[in-house]
Amino acid sequence: MTETDDDANSRANEKARKRKVAHDKKVAAKTVEKGLLIVHTGTGKGKSTAAFGLVLRALGNGMRVGVVQFVKGAWTTGERPLLEGFGDRVDMRVVGEGFTWETQDRARDIAAAEAGWAAAQEMIEASRGDEPRYDMLVLDELNIVLRYDYLALDEVVAALVNRPRDLHVVVTGRNAKPELIEAADLVTEMKLVKHPFREQGVKAQKGIEF
Question: What's the pTM?
Answer without folding.
Answer: 0.85
